[in-house]
Write a structure and sequence with these properties.
Elements: E1 3-6, E2 9-12, H1 23-31, H2 35-57, H3 60-77, H4 87-105, H5 108-118, H6 126-144, H7 148-159, H8 164-171, H9 175-195
Antiparallel strand pairs: 1-2
Helix pairs in contact: 1-2, 2-3, 2-4, 3-4, 4-8, 5-6, 6-9, 7-9, 8-9
Amino acid sequence: MSMTCTTGQLYLTATVRTPDTSDAALIRSIAAADKHAMRILFARHNVQVFRFLLRFVGDKSAAEDLVSEVFLDVWRQAGMFQGRSQVTTWLLAIVRNKALSALQRRSTEELDEDAAAAIEDPHDNPEATLQNRQKAELLLKCLRQLSAAHREIIELVYYHEKSIAEVAEIVGIPPNTVKTRMFYARKRIAELMAAQGIDRAVV
């Protein structure tokens, strides 16, 4: 075992965390202020966290900023992780709270503009682009009329492709409650879309 000693700090190669170290072990090391473990965890999960946030906030720059906030919270809260659930579930709960807080800070108008712009295809003709924008705005209006609880379930299940069990863990409710909320959310969206002259909802 080789070792290097510099300015009072001892580095043992045998104790260096490797990329195949489990998430739980990394969290324990992070709780002990191990920056190397933090870098590994970040490299392992930052893309997933970014995509999760992007789907919620609809803005790349905002999502990137929130990624930094999420992992700062991980650094601060690692000592509170008790291992009762998977690290990814604990992490996504932090991400969810950050995303919801960000949404509360933003206006409905900003969200509508971001989402509408995101679905535009540069190869569409002007008429098709206008139709897509109008459909996106209509769907967003329908989603905004759902309760916060129902809207959250739709986001996680359809846009983040989470299973019923995963949503239940992230939100902290029983799986049957997730199913019930999803049923009523879909029913309500269908009613709202039908009222606007669209026969079936997109979810």
